[in-house]
Amino acid sequence: MKTVKDIMSTDCVTATTKDNIYELAVLMKQHDIGFVPIVEGKKLIGVVTDRDLVTRGYAEKHSGSTSATEVLTNDIKTIESSTSVDDAAKIMASNQIRRLPVVDNGNLIGVVAIGDLAVREIFVNEAGDALSSISEQDHRELASSTH
């Protein structure tokens, strides 16, 4: 049985609570990512997505010098590296999550993205179901925001 440790990305771009939202936006642009785990040392504190920067940051008229702590999500779903790939796919689908931090003993050791499930042709159906479910949610959010 394959575990998350077999497929997770370990070269995560991270930031700290001392970083500001402008620095997070620059990191996202430089690395072409939309998700940055916020850590203290190796301990996962929360995550900031590109959507967080927009909705909790700039759309709230916060300046670029605003602390990352103002926009981060700290109530996040995480999994351990020993979690099976099948269980990870189910967690991602049921929680509508595209990226799932992998944490052992409170420390961030990697991230599993929905693409990690599909690209490696492991549990393609679950990854497809998860992506489809997430995309439907995004579509519903978009449709409801246009009315």
TrEMBL record:
It holds the Pfam family CBS. Residues 8-64, 72-131 form the CBS domain. SMART domains: CBS. The keyword Nucleotidyltransferase does not apply. Transmembrane segments: none annotated. Keywords: CBS domain. SUPFAM superfamilies: CBS-domain pair. The keyword DNA-binding does not apply. Gene3D superfamilies: CBS-domain. This is CBS domain-containing protein.
